[in-house]
Amino acid sequence: MFSLLSACLAVVCLFSLLFGAGEIGPLDSLLILLGKLDGTTAQYAEEAVFVVQELRLPRTLIGLVVGMALGVAGALLQAVARNPLAEPGLLGVSAGSAFAVAVALMLGASAATLRVSVAQLGALAGCLCVLAAARMRGVGNDPVRLVLAGAVLSGLLGALTSMILLVDQRTADEIRFWIVGSLAGRRIEDLHAILPSMALGGVVTVLIARPLAALALGERVAVGLGHHPQLVRLLVIGVVAILVGATTAVAGPIAFIGLVVPFAARALAGPDIRRTLWLCLPLGPLVVISADIVSRLVVQPSELPLGVLTALIGAPVLILVVRSQRLPTL
User: Is the residue at 5 inside a domain?
Assistant: First the structure.
């Protein structure tokens, strides 16, 4: 299954380089990739090369990283909360990142140097609020109530972020398009800024995958196997904050990826968190890049923000999970 998903991802990545909202069509884009674009003016050839190499290639690579990070973060958050509806966008983690970035920019911080770290701190605060809500009596055991609590947190942080945008015109101008989630206009330098965070999150995820699988069997079983449940939870919080904060910094708050991808991965791999995480690696970017391609084509010559499209995809999945008579076992 992993090989099949990886092959599908490779095809989608190729389509991402070939299709766009501008005048450069798929045939010319393919010729550019093959180095055989002839019979055109020098200006058109230069423009075509710029579109493929400087616009489509960076957003495709960033889509790969963002999809992997959000898919893995969603699976980890659902596992530690023991709730299939625990998703960074639904529970306020992404909103915490966005709010932290807006505050930093309002205070005059440089977006180029501080956005990633500030967004990660905001995501960490959101994660702590999620776990605090999960431990409240009557909330943690009720998936719908947990989502409602997360919606309240997201709404509050979203309202505060909107207030900042209304008060500070400079901040509004800088993050107006970013705040709805998009890969458009991203540069390869943005990818370089988040790669250390992605590497750190990946290493820690590998280390905690086995203890997290044991924790799914119960705390007593995990302790009997030599693991420390509280330490595992703290590490999961840190990893989710790192991954969600970094992706929010580079692409804005993209909702529902952390819900759709783990849901599909569990359907294919079963309840084992290790297999789920493994399948999230190709599934996450497959969903993100596919949605990004559609966002370029549906309203040509303009583009639809990626966050809007992922919300349209994720909302039916959310309804499906909520209406299920029996929620997936985590």
Answer: no
Domain that holds residue 163: 64-323
DSSP code of residue 329: P
Cα 284–Cα 55–Cα 246 angle in degrees, nearest 5: 45
How far is the C-alpha of 308 from the C-alpha of 254, rounded, in Å?
A: 8
Tally of CA atoms within 13 A in the half-sphere of 189 that contains its CB: 4
CB neighbourhood size of 63 (10 A): 27
Supply 140's token pair: 């943690």
- Confidence band of 329 (pLDDT split at 50, 70, 90): very low
Q: What tokens does 81 get?
A: 């909360």
3-class DSSP state for residue 36?
coil
280 with 71: CB under 8 angstroms? yes
**Residue 66, exposed/middle/buried by CB under 10 A (0-12, 13-18, 19+)?**
buried
CA quadruple 177, 178, 180, 185: dihedral positive or negative? positive
Selection from 292, 282, 325 nearest residue 143 by Cα: 325
* Residue-wise DSSP of 220-236: HHHHHTT--HHHHHHHH
Q: What is the rounded CA–CA span in Å between residue 295 and residue 291?
A: 6
- Which residues have a Cβ under 8 Å from the Cβ of 252 and sit 6 or more positions away? 98, 175, 177, 178, 179, 180, 181, 182, 307
Here the CATH number for the domain that contains residue 183 is 1.10.3470.10
Say if residues 79 and 160 touch (Cβ distance below 8 Å): no
- The whole-angstrom separation of Cα 52 and Cα 58 is 9
The reply to whether 44 falls in a domain is no
For 60-72, write each residue's pLDDT tens digit: 999 999 999 999 9
- Taking a C-beta distance cutoff of 8 angstroms, is the pair 80, 233 a contact? yes
Q: What is the pTM of this model?
A: 0.87
Distance CA 260, CA 81 (A): 17
The SS3 call for residue 303 is coil
Q: Name the domain count of the chain.
A: 1
Residue 110 has pLDDT above 80, yes or no: no
Element holding 58 (H helix, E strand): helix 57-81
